[in-house]
Fold this sequence. Notes:
By secondary structure, the chain is mostly helical. The protein has two domains: 1-62, Multidrug-efflux Transporter Regulator, Chain: A, Domain 2, CATH 1.10.1660.10; 79-130. The protein has helices spanning 6-13, 17-25, 44-58, 63-74, 80-114, 124-129, and strands spanning 4-5, 33-34, 40-42. The chain has a three-stranded antiparallel beta sheet. The longest helix is centred in the last third of the chain and has 35 residues, at 80-114. The termini are far apart.
Amino acid sequence: MSLVTIAQASAITGVSAKMIRHYESIGLIAAPMRTENRYRHYSEAELHELGFIRRSRDLGFSFEDIRQLLSLWRDRTRSSADVKAIALRHVEELDQKAAALAAMSRTLKQLAACCHGDDRPDCPILDALDPPKPAEI
């Protein structure tokens, strides 16, 4: 495969041109080769890295985690234990987020069950969202 433009790289990898430029600006990927007209051109290896980043983002990894994973991926002498540690830490974060989302869902279901959902203005959902009034001094 020859070099491709940013538009072609975007189409091939599913990463928007805006995100490709962002990844470059934060140093997640190296600046690509530029032609005389200053257009970015990407090699097959760079497309592969963009695909790696895309899959990592799809799994919810942070940019810092992706930076570490990319570094480990490029290092053929890496220890898989380092990679596993990053993945398991991320799993724990995802589990915590899932538990928080489940708690929010339960709360909203309880509030919705208490709401009559009719023409009356009384609404326990709005009551629960209304912050308590500050204590008087």
